[in-house]
Structure formats: structure tokens, C-alpha cells
Amino acid sequence: MQIQRETLSQEALLTLANELIRSHEDFIHGMRADAVEQRGDVLVFKGEYFLDQDGTPTPKTMAVFNMFKYLAHRLSDKYRLA
């Protein structure tokens, strides 16, 4: 059974994703999706991961990773990248 997904532009998907991020209870100031790509049936969101100067994760890094995972789960079943 094939799931019907609405096709959206990158700009529209990023607008939707960033609205979801800002309204989420785990939002951190500066957290945003800057890019999205389609990998099979999954939308992969990318943005700032709040790494420190030597490239190692900070406490904010896991929150961003979890937010992008949340976006993938929430939006991949509904939308496809144009």
C-alpha cells in the first residue's frame, strides 16, 4: 500500500519545519532547519548542531539531533520534496 504524500518545495518544507521547531517544548534559541533532502521515503533535515570550537558535541547537540529526528518522523509520512 502506497502512502499519498503532498509534494512541497524545499522552501515550503523548511517554513513548515521551522514553525514546528519554534512551537515545540524542547525549542532552543537558534535552533532551526536550514536544509532538507529526500532520502528514499524520509525527509532529512539539517542545520546548526551547536558543536564547540573543536567540533565536539555540546549539551545542545542532542536536542537538535532529536528535533531533526522528530521532524523526519512527523513530516516524512505527509510530504515529499519537489
Question: How would you describe this protein?
Answer:
There is one protein chain. The chain has about 80 residues and is α+β, with helices and mostly antiparallel strands. It has one domain: Protein of unknown function (DUF2498) (GMP Synthetase, Chain A, domain 3, 2-Layer Sandwich), CATH 3.30.300. Helix content is about 40%, strand content about 25%. The protein has two helices and four strands, in the order βαββαβ. The chain starts with 5 loop residues before the first strand and ends with a strand. The mean pLDDT is about 95.
What does the secondary structure layout of this molecule look like, with pairings?
Elements: E1 6-8, H1 10-23, E2 33-39, E3 42-47, H2 59-75, E4 79-81
Parallel strand pairs: 1-4
Antiparallel strand pairs: 2-3
Summarize the structure.
It comes from Aeromonas bivalvium. This protein is of the alpha+beta class and 82 residues long.
Salient structural properties:
elongated, 82 residues, alpha+beta, YciN family protein, YciN_sf, DUF2498, 2 helices, two-stranded antiparallel sheet, GMP Synthetase, Chain A, domain 3
Number of strands: 4
Poorly predicted regions: none
Beta content: 15-25%
Choose one word for the global shape. elongated
Largest sheet: 2 strands, parallel
Structural class: alpha+beta
Mean pLDDT score: 95
- The assigned CATH architecture is 2-Layer Sandwich
Pfam families: DUF2498
Protein name: YciN family protein
Organism: Aeromonas bivalvium
